[in-house]
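Blinded run. Sample ID left blank on purpose so nobody reads anything into the name before looking at the predicted structure. Input follows.
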Amino acid sequence: MTLAELEIEKAKSLQEIADATDAAAVESLRVKYVGRNGSIPALIKGMKDVPPAERPAFGKAIQAWKAEVEAALAGKGAGASTEKAVEADLTIPGRWFHLGAKHPLSRVIEETARIFGHLGFTVADGPELETRFNNFTALNTPPHHPSQDRTDTFWFNDDCLLRTQTSPVQIRTMLANRPPIRVICPGRTFRRDTTDATHSANFHQIEGLYVDTKPVSLADLKSVLAYFAQEMMGSGVKVRFRPHFFPFTEPSVEVDFSCHVCKGKGCRVCKDSGWIEVAGAGMVDPRVFGFVGYDPAQVSGYAFGFGVERIAMIKYGIPDIRWLYENDVRFLEQLA
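Blinded prediction complete.
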């Protein structure tokens, strides 16, 4: 085939593609011209028979023909797809898209913010990547405490870690403000803990802090948590304090809510005790005030913290914490 004949074949092929009226015709022409056994691949394979002096011009012409054919085919394909899409839009009945629902964790966080908002608490936020000082030192946690071990905490280096609690937000708030302070600190936290169906390496906490120059007592803390329990779980819920130890509070308590399932009589949910452990709390340790530049003789306050997943599991009867992260629509629809 000469160069003149090649130009004639190219013009013919482009005209055939332009005249194609449906997708089947376009596909047939694609196979005919650029398919594995098409005309253009055959010419490329036959380049060895072209005189050496003519090969550069001949090869350039074939490649130009191939490029124009592929461009023309692509244009016809796009046009067919567009026409098909328009036809589908005009003929297929409309689909009903159901409105989504808030995730149970989002519900608990928003409801908690609403409840404490009635008591004058505002919401404070902070970074998930924290320093040793904010996450441990300023919270009166000694260097030998197990929580600082690399088997318990996600460390990036000796001073940088994924926060293990939202308490660092309390430290940041106190460093940036003077009393009175009344905040809750919701957020994501991280610990190396996947021991059972109630623990996850990634989980959420809501911690609260109240500091004032006026006297603050455990009675104030109990009244606030009792109000929260009744608003979140129902008016019949009771609150129980048990002595405990936390480095950043003194005295410290564990906080239990009476079981909302059996009303305190004892069942499988509460392990026949009538109570469900919900939070840790206590009066802010004076040494914590020292780390943030407060005078312990002039201020007092309380702090508390609980897991959002724990509240959600109790409130909605969820037996496995992993269900909250699997994004299974069948599970989420039950809570819609």
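Unblinding after everyone has recorded impressions. Residues 78-83 have pLDDT under 50 and may be disordered.
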